[in-house]
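User: Working on a comparison across species. This one is IPT/TIG domain-containing protein from Lepeophtheirus salmonis. Can you predict its structure so I can line it up against the others?
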Amino acid sequence: RFFLKFFLKCNQNCLKNAGNPRDMRRFQVVISLIPSVEGQLMAVSDNMFVHNNSKHGRRAKRLDPTEAAIPCIKAVSPSEGWTSGGSTVIIIGENFFDGLQVVFGTMLVWSELITNHAIRVQTPPRHIPGVVEVTLSFKSKQFCRGAPGRFIYVSLSEPNIDYGFHRLGKLVPRHPGDPEKLPKEIVLKRAADLAEALYSMPRNNQFSLTGHRTPASITHQMNAGFNSYADDYGRSIHNSSVSPSSSMDFSIPPSTTTPSAHYNHSFLQASSSTYLNLYCAKSEDSSF
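Assistant: Here's the predicted structure for IPT/TIG domain-containing protein from Lepeophtheirus salmonis:
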């Protein structure tokens, strides 16, 4: 913003009505981007009148850019950050102009105009987590008070986040020389490396990791499937009347009634051998 001051010197002898203040010649000074006064003007002065004392002038009247279109906030991206501050946030909206400032709560922050639809700011620090309103300000005039943007301050020491870091600290790999309690930034980095390594491994149809399945659910399904298979298999052995000298077929059935029962083949063979030994031991104790 610039303040321009013009000094106009008029020769009163060139005026037809010189010396008559009741019939004053009026002048205006305008600044525009094109040599025409019909388009949008950058600045317009008040009426200046000329009389016997032609050094008289008026203070320039500048057009307030907020009079044409009121700026408003549509979104804040990202909408949350740490209480330590310093996060880069983009304010998205309409009718932004140079000199427009952003206010987080009651804190006025430095802003950088990207376009008339986007402003880049750095979030100020805040001592407590929570939600603050994001508004706009220009020359002590605030905008967006009725529909402000919102920014959420998050603290690393919140109980839920701290508990999550405690759980991650037990899962991430440890290196020689690590302290007993790893810093949170190291826990995050190692957890991210571990997740990338797991999801980049070659997958098969038996244990494919999907977004809604967890290792606990996979383990539960495996156990449930094996238990149902073991019950059915043991029941079929006890119900059948077979002599010890008869040949018994303990081949693995091609499919089971449980869709999620995908077992390891060698594991099932070992399990069937266990049931065979138990049955033979029971048969020796009983009299035929």
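For your comparison, note: The first strand starts at residue 25 and ends at 27.

User: Helpful, thanks.
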